Amino acid sequence: MAGNFPFIKLKDICVKITKGSTPTKKDGGFSEQGINFIKAESATYDGVLDESKFTFVTEEVYEKYKRSQLEENDILFSMAGAFLGKTGLVEKKHLPANTNQALALIRVDSSLANPKFVHYSLQQGRIVHYVNNSISQSAQPNINLQQIGDLDIEFPAREIQDSIVDVLDSIVQRILVNRQTNRTLEQMAQALFKSWFVDFDPVIDNALAAGNNIPEALQHKAKQRKQAQKLPDFKPLPDDIRALFPSEFEQTDEPSIGIAGWIPKGWNFGSMKQHANIVMGQSPKGDTYNNEGLGTPLVNGPVEFGDYFTKKSKWTSAPTKLSLKGDLIVCVRGSTTGRFVKSDGVYCLGRGVCSVRGMRSQIFTDLIFKNSIEHLLGLATGSTFPNWSRQILNEFKVILPCTQIVDAFDKLLSENLKKIELNVVESKALNNLRDTLLPKLISGELSVENNC
After folding, report:
1. What pLDDT is attached to residue 3?
2. Does the keyword DNA-binding apply (predicted)?
3. Which domain holds residue 117?
4. Which of 146, 156, 70, 75 is nearest to 108 (CA)?
């Protein structure tokens, strides 16, 4: 039965509820490396801090801002900005670290409550809904520390708290394993792409083995390959794949292609349209939109971007331009230009996005596009925010390897892609399970002993 557990004010089980500060330039500001500085962008609705969005401060700045120094098991709670109620639990690996004023720093008295239980409690839908509907009327939505301290949370006996944490942790850990596995697989794909199509390692290896002349512009690469070949863990490509690559280079009249204009002999360069069909979005009429799942799901930007696949939040009964399963969907307007996501089905493309559909290999096309984003941003139009036109995306210069090499690349990575997608699907199911169990366990509606 719901409501088995008593409620308590958050502030009554905490030793501290405060917020940090952003270091001023006078005090040293931010640095390229050093001590972690955690901003609101790192907080998430699933409670796992996004470490890729950490910034850094020096040790001197860290010491100056003592109020914002973090400890293990501190809870960070987003209290300002567009998305209130995102959280993160500080782990030992994150320390030392500071935070800023957009995140509340909640330090639970561990003699009174399990900090992880409190963290899970704050991720409940009712809490997130409450804080997003209790915002102060100002230019930037926000809630204050008093409102956070006055939040009512369920408060079962400590042993029940610990058991609930064990159940939810087991689900979250599986999700984290999947994420790390996918991150590793994606890094492997990026590394292979760079080796074959940016650094031309197999061609240099073949040239060295054949004793062929290596252009001056590539001499430093040749030196690196000689050193790499002497390492005990060096693994040459299988003979059948290595034989696909030439053993010489030729110079093009396009210095932005290859290495200072040098590309493998027999390869070519051309436009992105020779690798992909670019479908620019076109927003349907507003009166065709709905939230009931009628028609075709719509994607117009990061609101519809999940961690890997698109997500359905709005539909249209009159779709215009469509993406297909497997397409790379890319933002083409505004401050989010260049962000991308994979399409897991048919979507209507709004004017804020395009789809990139590979002609021969979607894997190769995805990677050549991702590796060209910085270059493309330099070609963008728009004085304030970058915009990409169909012409820019179709016409930018790319390398055109032999088709047999693209096919071999695709074959090598296709199984990894399947693993990534299976992990994403499993993680989505685990997230749904977690979201279902979380409020039921914490409210007492579901008993750990009897049901988990």
Report:
1. 54
2. yes
3. 7-155
4. 75
